[in-house]
Design goal:
single chain; about 500 residues; alpha/beta; seven-stranded mixed beta sheet; 23 strands; about 20% strand; globular
Length: about 500
């Protein structure tokens, strides 16, 4: 076993993961840092999948009867356990997903933050009292637990996406079944062990309240197709969403879809260029371009284009690419060879469309895939600019008129995140009023959402919302109740029906 393998074993043992769960199985976990195998995970077969859904259904029936503030206590304990495990879980995220340590720690902090949010929410699942036209009647809305919630997550946020969904689902009275990415099963096993400790401290959580379903596409299909799963929150590609959405619709199940993002940013003539440089650099290069909110398109006003792009190229040339366990590294590896090949294919297409490529070269060799982030000056929004490539490619274009460039900005299939850098309040407000994305920022990049706001986007991004604001409502069902406390039976709209 290599030193990295020993490190993984130490982390998993310390986090309480049973060795049988990650040794001797049939699914390999491969670290993108070196390309070596770091685990062999047990995969759920059809019988195990059926058992998981059976116990999740039974757990829901028990959990929905627990008062919501008491449910919040379990999530509070989960937050405590995550605080205690933060450093080890973050290091495991770095090893299995390839993130730099600060991003991995930030992802675990997101888990802690959403637990804090959900604990407060457990005492704020408010309904409404509604004015009624009938005398001596009371009308109200009441929110009830929904059922089994399925979570399908992607490799790039291997633990936070589960927490966004699970924390809210649990305080709302639901059980949770999680199908993690095939590329990051070890982090999922670690999170399950952390949850199990919180549940043990809680004392009377029903068996099977939160479970793992590790496997390939068939495991996700089981969640999508089983009528006992009331809601599926699926994070992944638009292609995946096109498969998931109609299958859920066919059985009238709920869907929260977090799909592709071809995110754009505008740098206006009045922008603070130092601030814009930092915002664009992180948005485009962070997580090696493997975020759904990565900045992929940049529109720079003609009057500042040459100066700003030259500064941006200097930042690209100087950024440290390499093993994220080494200090000063800001860009880690692509997740695998397929990611690298997709990047090179997109760069070839950009050149064919008249683009001038800066960067994009592979760094090192072997079984890991480190690449220099690529900045591509394009003559317009054509060819690969219209598509999302999950890699650090930033397409840069000139613009001359704000209203015209906002139209161009919106003229892509996805609608997740957007940004403008400007010190002109009128420009900022015009952009916010016109951006067709679920997230629109001023003087910060497209990446780095907080848990307090609802996260998600429009168009081919799927329309789903996770995390904060009123996203909790998706995990509950609404009932309108009317109570007649009179001796008469007046009907609404003046209807008369005397017998």
């Amino acid at each position: 076993m290599t030193q990295l393998g020993h490190d993984v074993a130490r982390l998993l043992d310390g986090l309480g993961v049973d060795r049988d769960a990650w040794t001797g199985g049939s699914m390999a976990s491969v670290t993108p840092l070196t390309g070596e195998r770091i685990g062999m995970v047990q995969v759920a077969d059809a019988a195990h999948t059926a058992a998981v859904l059976d116990t999740a259904t039974a757990a829901f029936r028990a959990w929905r009867r627990v008062p919501a503030p008491r449910r919040g206590e379990l999530v509070r304990l989960l937050g405590d356990e995550l605080r205690a495990a933060k450093d080890d879980l973050a290091r495991l995220v770095t090893i299995e997903a390839g993130k730099i340590p600060s991003e991995s720690a930030g992802e675990v902090q997101e888990m802690i933050d959403i637990c804090d949010f959900a604990v407060g929410l457990s005492r704020q699942l408010y309904g409404l009292t509604i004015a009624t036209e009938r005398p001596a009647h009371r009308m109200m809305e009441v929110w009830h637990p929904l059922g089994v919630v399925g979570v399908i997550s992607a490799f790039n946020f291997p633990v936070a996406v589960w927490a966004w969904n699970a924390a809210l689902a649990l305080v709302c009275g639901n059980s949770v079944v999680w199908k993690p990415s095939e590329k990051t099963p070890l982090t999922a096993l670690a999170v399950q062990a952390i949850f199990d400790r919180a549940a043990a401290r809680f004392g009377d959580a029903p068996h099977g309240l939160a479970q793992l379903l590790i496997g390939g596409p068939e495991a996700g299909e089981a969640l999508v197709d089983d009528r006992r799963v009331a809601l599926v929150s699926a994070t992944g590609s638009t292609r995946m969403g096109r498969s998931v959405a109609p299958r859920l619709a066919a059985r009238f199940a709920r869907a929260i879809l977090e799909l592709g993002g071809n995110n754009g940013a505008i740098v206006a003539p009045s922008a603070d260029l130092d601030l814009a440089l930092r915002g664009v650099a992180f948005g485009a290069m962070g997580t090696a371009g493997q975020r759904c909110t990565t900045t992929r398109r940049l529109f720079v006003h003609d009057s500042i284009y040459d100066d700003f792009v030259a500064r941006l190229k200097a930042a690209y040339a100087s950024v440290a690419v390499g093993n994220p366990l080494e200090s000063a590294v800001l860009v880690g590896p692509l997740i695998d060879r397929a990611g690298y090949e997709a990047m090179q294919s997109a760069l070839d297409a950009a050149r064919a469309a008249g683009g001038v490529v800066f960067g994009g070269d592979r760094v090192g060799g072997g079984d890991s895939y480190y690449v220099k982030p690529a900045l591509v000056e394009m003559p317009g929004q054509v060819g690969p600019v219209l598509d999302e490539t999950f890699a650090p490619i930033l397409y840069v274009m000139r613009y001359y008129d704000l209203d015209a460039v906002i139209e161009v900005h919106n003229d892509v299939a996805a609608g997740l995140s957007s940004a403008i850098f400007t010190t002109d309040v009128r420009e900022a407000e015009r952009f916010l009023a016109a951006s067709d994305c679920g997230i629109a920022n001023v003087n910060l990049g497209t990446s780095g959402a907080e848990i307090g706001g609802a996260f998600g986007g429009e168009k081919e991004t799927g329309g789903g919302r996770e995390s904060g604001s009123d996203s909790w409502r998706q995990y509950m069902r609404r009932a309108t109740n009317t109570v007649n406390y009179s001796d008469a039976l007046p009907l609404a709209q003046g209807v008369s029906f005397e017998i």
